[in-house]
Amino acid sequence: MKRTLICMLLSGATLLRAEGDAALAQVERGRQVFLHSKKGIACATCHSLEGQGIAVGPDITKLAAVVGPRGLATTILMTATAYVQDFKLPNGRTFPGIEKQKTADTWEIFDLSRIPAVLLKLKPADTVVVRSSSEWCHPPTVAKYAPEELADIIGYLKFVATGKAKEVSSDELF
Ligand code: HEC
């Protein structure tokens, strides 16, 4: 009896460890997609996590800390934008951009028409914000990630945002 109990406890512990291992393996897969994906444009080209990547887009950890897998999948595949605006320069060139910093004399704007984005320093008096919605499209919307890859990315985002590895299934996303 006692022996059975010990066996049950041990196998329970092994099961937990196996689940933990699977979650950590997913975090690593997600990290690799985030940093180096050959599909579309790697997230790290525009987002910084764990000290890697370029912070062109917003800090994803704030959202990933509070939003579940489905909400994150929707946001990653979003077609509407909240921060990207179109800017028009005196020479007539218009480009989708995202603000890095604005002071009275200079607007620091990432030009999203370039990959990787180029930081421009503009004079506010010369620059016109055309409109808040843009033709710009978040690269993951056209990257055709498999649901499993998206689940790996989200597992990784949740891990960085919360410090806990918990496996995300692709069934939770849609
Ligand atoms: C070419 C640059 C670029 C790439 C590549 C990119 N993003 Fe983004 N991302 C942005 C920009 C810019 C925004 C802000 C869009 C807006 O709402 O105006 C954004 C927004 C987001 C948001 C919403 C953040 C918030 O607080 O609203 C998430 C989540 C996100 N990206 C995740 C990802 C993931 C995951 C990948 C890779 C699979 C990725 N992004 C690839 C530029 C990029």
Structure description:
The protein has 174 residues and is an alpha+beta fold. The protein folds into two domains: 2-79 and 145-172, Cytochrome Bc1 Complex, Chain D, domain 2, CATH 1.10.760.10; 85-131. Helix content is 38%, strand content 16%. It has helices at 2-36, 60-66, 69-76, 147-162, and strands at residues 85-88, 94-102, 107-111, 118-122, 128-131. Helix 1 (2-36) packs across helix 4 and helix 2 crosses helix 4. The protein binds heme C. Residues 41, 43, 45-47, 56-58, 60, 63, 72, 75-76, 81-84, 98, 112, 138-140, 153 line the site of heme C.
- What is the domain total for the residues? 2
- Widest sheet: strand ordering: 4-3-2-1-5
What's the total number of strands?
5
Rg of Cα set: 21 Å
**Structure ligands:** heme C
How much strand?
15-25%
Outline: elongated
* Uncertain residue ranges: none
The portion of residues assigned to helices is 25-40%
CATH superfamily of the largest domain: Cytochrome c-like domain
Please, how many helices?
A: 4
Main sheet, how many strands, which sense, barrel? 5 strands, antiparallel
The N- to C-terminal Cα distance equals: 45 Å
The top level CATH class name of the largest domain: Mainly Alpha
CATH fold descriptor of the largest domain = Cytochrome Bc1 Complex, Chain D, domain 2
Order of helices and strands: HHHEEEEEH
Q: Any guess at the CATH architecture of the largest domain?
A: Orthogonal Bundle
Helix/sheet category:
alpha+beta
Return the average pLDDT rounded to an integer.
91
